[in-house]
Amino acid sequence: MIRNVPHKHTLSRLSLGFLFSTVVAWLAYRRHSLNKNGVAGAIITGTATVGFGGWSWGLSLIFFFISSSAFSHYREREKARIAADKFSKGSRRDIAQVAANGGLAALLALWHSMATSPEQRDLLLAGGAGALAAATADTWATELGVLSSEPPRSIITGKPVPPGTSGGVTRPGMLAAASGALGLGVVFWGLERFRRSLASLPLIACLAGLVGSMADSLLGAVLQGVFYCPVCKAETERRVHSCGTTTVPMRGLRWLNNDAVNFTATLVGCLTAMALWLFTRAPTDFENRV
User: Fold this and answer.
1) How far is Cα 239 from Cα 254, in angstroms, rounded to an integer?
2) What is the chain's pLDDT, residue by residue, as a tens digit (290 residues)?
3) For the chain, what is the domain count?
4) CA gyration radius for the chain?
5) Dihedral of the CA atoms 51, 180, 104, 34 (nearest 10)?
6) pTM, two decimal places
7) Distance between CA atoms of residues 216 and 289, nearest Å
8) Other CB atoms within 10 A of residue 289 CB
9) N-terminal to C-terminal alpha carbon distance within the chain
10) Contacts for 262 with CB less than 8 Å, ≥ 6 apart
């Protein structure tokens, strides 16, 4: 009977996670933050994250989603005028975007539920926080950085590039990235009841989020597929430009789109957070052995 208790808890959380995720996804759809298949993606991701990770994981995912959606709609018309043609998708997230930003956290939550020791669970929790911090950092940087009064600069050459260009960074964007990642870390730690053993989580999330966001910019500048509209003479991430013209490859890998780049950024954030977590734990382990 004792062995079945965790299983019952998981089933209960999955049920509650499904109901909670369905409500949030429906509200997001009504607010034009998700399209129809994005609703399905949000329900699947949210249910898995809450069901296997618990409410601290699930509500941290909600923090990312709500804050990012709010910034997506912030000064939306102005952003559309500045750089909408460059972005591959609009502010309504689809299932691929949901999976790219929250899919890894859901997988880590599943792994977390199967961990056999507190040390493993905390390591996976740090990885989950790093993945969500990277997603938060990148989205905040994109949504707020494009509104910067100073022109973005290429992360590779340092030269000014048009707003919305893949690999372009600004100081306000970097500040937004750091704020978003730190905020995610604080929220995750708070939802874990500010456990003393997780006191380093906000700083780790901040650093991991920044590293993940920088990885996103580097991939965007070097490898992400960028296309060219011969009619509008404009650079874009879209295979079909907003004018209806089929674009032609300009640089990068055709198959490496923004969703793949975003998922890679969350993976980099996850691995960075886990490495930092192990580094901060090492002195304690040494002291214990001595």
Assistant:
1) 9
2) 334 434 556 788 899 999 999 999 999 999 889 999 999 999 999 999 999 999 999 999 999 999 999 998 887 777 767 655 556 555 678 999 999 999 999 999 999 999 999 999 999 999 999 999 999 999 999 999 888 888 899 999 999 988 878 888 999 999 999 999 999 999 999 999 999 999 999 999 999 999 999 999 999 999 998 888 888 877 787 778 777 788 888 888 888 999 999 999 999 999 999 999 999 986 654 344 44
3) 1
4) 20
5) 80
6) 0.89
7) 40
8) 6
9) 40
10) 97, 100, 101, 135, 138, 216
Q: Would you mind telling me the total number of residues written for the chain in this entry?
A: 290
The vertex-266 CA angle with 154 and 117, nearest 5°, equals: 150
Closest alpha carbon to 273 in 193, 215, 194: 215
Instruction: Name the residue range of residue 195's domain.
Output: 4-289
* Residue-by-residue DSSP string for the chain: -TTHHHHHHHHHHHHHHHHHHHHHHHHHHHTTSB-HHHHHHHHHHHHHIIIII-HHHHHHHHHHHHHHHHHHHTTHHHHHHHHTTTSSS-SSB-HHHHHHHHHHHHHHHHHHHH--SHHHHHHHHHHHHHHHHHHHHHHHHHHHHTT-SSPPEETTT--B--TT-TTEE-HHHHHHHHHHHHHHHHHHHHHTTT-GGGTTHHHHHHHHHHHHHHHHHHHHHHTB-EEEETTTTEEES-SB-TTSPBPEEEESBTT--HHHHHHHHHHHHHHHHHHHHHHHHHHHHHHHH-
The first and second tokens of residue 152, run together, are 């973005």
Amino acid at 213: S
For 39, the token pair is 């609703």
